[in-house]
Amino acid sequence: MKKYILSIDQGTTSSRVVLYDDKFKIKDVSQKEFTQFFPNDGWVEHDAEEIWDDVKNLIQQIIKKNKLKSSQITSIGIANQRETTVMWNKKTGKPIYKAIVWQDRRTANYCNKLKLKNKDKFIQKITGLVVDPYFSATKINWVLKNAPKKNIKQIKNILFGTIDTWLLWKLTEGRSHFTDITNASRTMIYDAKREKWSPELLKLFDIKKTMLPQVKENSCNFGYTKLFGNKIIIGGMAGDQQAAAIGQACFSAGQSKSTYGTGCFLLMNIGDKFKPSTNKLLTTVAFKINGEKMFCYEGSIFVAGSAIQWLRDNMLFFKNSKETDKIYSKANKNEKVTFIPALTGLGAPHWEPKTRGAIFGLTRNTSQADIIKATLDSLSFQTLDLIESMEKDSKIKISEIKVDGGMINNNNFLQSLSNVTQIKIIKPKNIETTSLGVAYLAGINAGVIKDINQIKKLWKKSKEARPKIAKKIIQKEIITWKKTIKNLISLNS
Predict the structure, then answer these.
(1) Angle between the N-to-C axes of helices 368-394 and 411-421, in degrees from 0 to 180, rounded to the nearest 10
(2) Is 4-248+430-459 assigned to CATH 3.30.420.40?
């Protein structure tokens, strides 16, 4: 009887369930987009119950479609959109407020007050994170202050979790309230060095430890589900970007991956020492497997694929995002359009939540193709900004980046990325690296795979892009980009 691993890849705009065989080949994929809520400027919310219902239904569909018995599923892995905050009543199982998404900026003023009180260095020293609405702590604080009073009346019954914890709790029917170390390290209340919830930060944010999940390694027994027949162990969990780094086999210091999905996330493995950044990057846990822990620097671009979605849904430039590859080639080389897609503020290395997007250099001849090209090129320039910061912090020269995410199917974008960064860009055979990463984690716990060394051997390259434009030529465009983004920040300050 053939054995399989189920990977849950719960993202910002859709939920996916991927079925892997015991050789880690994709057997089937099931996916569903879910509702986005934007109740105020800069606010982004999800319905946690809708997410759970979708995930449960997707698992049922993939089991039914492939005529599987629950006994054939060796383990389940969970990867999730990180930082997104869910709080619920453990007695009723109902959320006390909508899930506040990582992109949400409603706590920007609160974060500014923390900075004015010089709490930012204190927080970074403990967590490795900069003070920003991005992370969970200020979201938790906001919910506790603003949720309907009837929902928070019995504070002892309230639980917190990022989406991994919420899905685990629902899968196990309330038996497991756990998270993994990568997700914990993104909350801004976790002591990444000492591996515990920080009592100092819990006090600062007025958060009770009783509502927090227990933190575990990435590959272990998180509990079991009986919702699909016999017991199935949940054997792996990781935040989506760390899961992608595992799927890309970035296990040695200096190895880097960049994911181009809703946002862009560049991670560089920096080894087993906790080193806070001095260049506005995040220091976070890359993974902990079989007692071995690695850290990474991370740079986050808040708007990547969502900028393409904006061009499609709001500007009506095209009907399908796949069209952008061909349209890119139609851009006029004489048009010098610069687009800074700060649609939800700027992430690393700027951390300017109030900055808003802008397009510069428009002329009478500017076309849709020029703006689309400028949008895709902006992601290349923003990636370069992150690379420069990482090289300064790590003292390691990045010679190549493994890429993944939906946007890397755009060949023109890959070439743009290589041209601007002047480094080799590598695309793997399996671009579903997030689901693959947690499949590996679940597989290690189940004994299907031995260790990370075996993962290294399984990784395979599909194609690569190398620079085709001389550095001195691209340098002029880089200078223009840096001047433009500096001016935009100044205008919005």
Answers:
(1) 40
(2) yes
